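User: I'm putting together notes for a lab meeting next week and I want to include a structural view of one of the chains we've been expressing. I don't have a solved structure, so I'd like a prediction I can at least talk through. The sequence is below, exactly as it appears in our construct file.
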Amino acid sequence: MKEQHCAYCMGGELLDQFGIVICQLSVSTLILFKEQSHPGRCIVAYRDHVGEIVEISEEERNAFFADVDRAARAIHAAFHPDKLNYGAYGDTGRHLHMHLVPKYKDGFEWGGTFAMNPGKTFLTQAEYDEMIAKIKANL
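Assistant: Thanks for the context. Below is the predicted structure for the 139-residue chain, given as structure tokens.
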């Protein structure tokens, strides 16, 4: 099921505002978050438009978390964060997704909750492409 006003469902210009699709996983899309105050930050978005984890079967839930795990391992291998934070929000954008936010001891916001979109660090297309290649090489 797709929702026409949902960036995760529709992609295109809606998604381009904040993310770049890296690839499809088993039941999810892996997306590089354009704002890179936390180098390697990604989103794993479930393939269907559901708002809550309880709206999918146990099998689908397990597959979703396997996708999150696969993406997390790739981020760890590519960027070597000191900690990876996981955020599942959706008060207004009700599409099941999880933010994977690498944290670095000498980096931005270490020791605190990450900002949803700090709006501080944007990269060139070549830099985004390089990050995507690093992640894909470790999937």
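A couple of points you could mention at the meeting. The beta strands are 19-24, 28-33, 42-46, 83-87, 97-103. The CA atoms of residues 6 and 93 lie 7 Å apart.

User: Perfect, that's what I needed.
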